[in-house]
Amino acid sequence: MTLLQTYPRATGADTVPRTVADAMDAAGPQVWDGMTVEVALSVMAAAGTRHLLVCDEDGQYADLVTRDRLRAVRDGSAYTDRVRLRDVADGTGPFASPLATLAEAERAMRYRRVAALPVVDEDGNALGVLALSR
């Protein structure tokens, strides 16, 4: 029989957050789904962010749009200056509960190949964004 020595876990600031709520970034800019793609790109540039949380007319989370996705829409042949975020939002993207573990969220992000995962509470409010470190 081999003895295994264990050490107690550190409880200081060096511990890794255990839930999504512990690790998420603040929600950042949240925009209305009636905003045009061009204005949304301007908001992203001004805020220095790669994504925006999109809310519906009731203020509930609707989608997360990325700069790359909006640029692809803008560069598409069907684009006009009247295209709104609700026209390009699919609302089917993944999101995480603030109570989910980081391991669960990371697996979901890697499986779905997303770099940012919105954190949404049980009432549909966007609380923040969990992003993979690069």
Automatic annotation (TrEMBL):
<keyword id="KW-0129">CBS domain</keyword>
<protein>
    <submittedName>
        <fullName>CBS domain-containing protein</fullName>
    </submittedName>
</protein>
<feature type="domain" description="CBS">
    <location>
        <begin position="24"/>
        <end position="82"/>
    </location>
</feature>
<dbReference type="InterPro" id="IPR046342">
    <property type="entry name" value="CBS_dom_sf"/>
</dbReference>
<dbReference type="InterPro" id="IPR051257">
    <property type="entry name" value="Diverse_CBS-Domain"/>
</dbReference>
<dbReference type="InterPro" id="IPR000644">
    <property type="entry name" value="CBS_dom"/>
</dbReference>
<dbReference type="Pfam" id="PF00571">
    <property type="entry name" value="CBS"/>
</dbReference>
